Amino acid sequence: MLVRKAVRDVAAMGVRALLLVLVIGAGIGTAGGISLALHDVRASRDAFYRDQSLADLDVRLSRTVPRATLAARATAASATAAETRLVVDGLAVHGGDRAPAEVVGMSPQAHLDRLAVTGGHGLSDTEPRGAVVEAEYARRAGLRIGDTLDLTLGGHHLPVRVRGFARSPEYLLATANPEFLIPQPGSLAVVFVPEHGLATALDAGGQVNDLVLNLPPRSSPSTAQTLSAGLPVASVTPREEQYSLRFTNADLHSFALFVPVVGSVFAAVGFLLIGLSLRRVVQAQRRELGTMLAMGYRRPAVLATALLPAAALALPGAALAVGVTIGVARLVAHTYASAVGFPVTVATFSPALLGQAAAVAIGATLTAAVLPAWMLLRLQPAEAMRGERIVRFAPPRLLRRATGATGPAVSYASRSLARRPVLSVATVLSLALAIGLGASLNLLIDSTNRSVDEIFAGQRWTTAVGLTHPQTVAAARALARQAGATAVEPVAKGPGVLRSPNHSTDTVLVGLSAAPRLQRLHLTSGRLPAAGQIVLSEQTASSLKLRTGRPVEVTTSTGTRTMTVSGIARTLAGGQTYAPYADAAALLGLPGQANALYLKAPPASTRTLGAHPGVGRVSTLATARAGMHDLVRELTGLINVLLAISLGVGALFLVSSLALSLLDRQGEFATLRALGYGRARIMTILVTEALVQTLIAGALAVPAGILLAWPLADTIGQAWFHIGLHPVPSDFGVAIALAMALAVAAAMHSTRQVLRLNIAAAVRARLIG
């Protein structure tokens, strides 16, 4: 009998039951979907790097050596797999687009760092000048299959035909400025060609300058140093320090810290609405429960009766929560994977996470129903049978004065909100959280862009040049001056390792002049380095647990030296460390030489340098800044998805709250109709209630949005670079305006429902029961 009563009660609820199921599924499912999305993105990352066989170690040389030399080193290191390549920097030209290029000559049958072809065909030995182009650059440059791409490599001109587009585990986030942890998509033209075709074009038969290999498990940390000893090493990159993997790991770490914050807001909003809705459901059964108590039913049986409708709603709500979890996860994971560049998104459908979403939905629903039901059962049967007491609300004098000058419709709406403080406060808080989350995401994006601009604003260089081989400082200056540069700062740059007492990290050591005018450091503490001193980035100082005045051990391929931290710098190049030129050049084995330049030069000079045989790569400050903003815009897609979801949940809450409030007050509105209130007055009442709640929620959303953005900005700072919050009205205005528009739309819908009421039946139900 109790089950039949529960089914009858749910059926009698009609639209109210549907709204409750939607609320249960949307609130809990959204929080679960964001957690599942993180699971899917991690699976997509792992599958990509596994399927394309990202190498354990990449040894890049500054000049070519015989292939047999590198093959012998791989054999001596007991490599389980090894392949040699010929990698050359240059310039790519297509139509009016000119971009720094990295041309990779590799075997079409390569087993390591394989290409994931996304369009066209892969490399072929039968077409030595058939190229596969990195997909992001191809999209930006407008390349199509069959196009000709002109490559300038030192003094050689090499036209190639585009056979296909691909993603590579080594160049997933190809960037012209790899020292910046934030990549600039499409800023570097990565072109893959058959190795023998490239070697023939460059007259470098049998010569290579790159070795990728896999090492046996538990290899000694010194294996890489032993393998590269005596070779003209430009860089040694272990798998975990590979640029694409390093960025995606850092980015996923940031995303993982997002999940609890965003998921908690969605869960809190959903639970609040579930609790308020179930309270209404239980209160609607007050007379029936009182009657059952009077008839002799034991309180546990009556409690079960009150909970059965909640359970009947919880089951379809849990099923919907599972569906919403899957849908939100697919949407968020696909958006994220597209922004980063994973060619395929792996959907895991984790049984544990889906089961958790269903369990939370059921548990939250039953928990929300237990408290009001238990409070009702504590009443005497006769008191419960009388139904809910009619509220006689005497508004405070201030409210009477504030509403007395308005019409009766506005006065009624304002007083109606004040006489239901618990419902009104809960509604406002939930809306404030939903709006605040959307505003915080907007604030985060704007602040990220502003922080990028602030860091770039202090720089005076316009062009960064990487030389194909070290030159004397005088020769490097002369090269830049001949090309038309108006200011030149030669630097020595190379890989190294920093060690504090309990930590270590890889770095790029940069030797600067005593008073750099072009590459200027944005110091947050300390001062510029003098002899024997060094400046760390904020990220490096944090990972090493160091502050100014502390010693740090600097190790390169040519030696080790203990230096003192003189300052901490805020920079987008989080992996760089700065020392006086003399100290850095000595540690890198480049005394009196430079292998990179910072210039102030017009665009024509930049183009001239790009074609010089002694120049490996040229990048501009404007391109770096634009590339970082492009990436932020792509990642904005993910933020916009979360923003749309938060506004969607907030809209559902608002519509449900107004609809359920209307159902609870059908008798009141029927009485107003009987007193002659028409469409205009009814709409004024409902619009006033909706707008007042939304405006108060919008005001609370401003501090709530800043408080939510604070930990989110901190998580990005841990993974990328420090972000200072810069709130502006537009960050909050869009979310608040959308919420207000939704409030008006929901109020208009509720007005139509009021006008369809059976006045006599509704008044009779209110007064007689």
TrEMBL record:
Q: Which GO terms describe its molecular function?
A: transmembrane transporter activity
Q: What is this protein called?
A: ABC transporter permease
Q: Domain ABC3 transporter permease C-terminal, which positions?
A: 262-381, 641-759
For this UniProt record, give its keywords in alphabetical order, as a comma-separated list: Cell membrane, Membrane, Transmembrane, Transmembrane helix
InterPro entries per record: ABC3_permease_C, Macrolide_Exporter_MacB
The UniProt entry's sequence similarity note says: Belongs to the ABC-4 integral membrane protein family.
TM region positions: 255-279, 300-333, 353-377, 422-445, 638-663, 684-712, 732-749
GO CC annotation terms, alphabetical: plasma membrane
How does the protein's chain sit in the membrane according to the entry?
Answer: Multi-pass membrane protein
* Locations listed in the record: Cell membrane
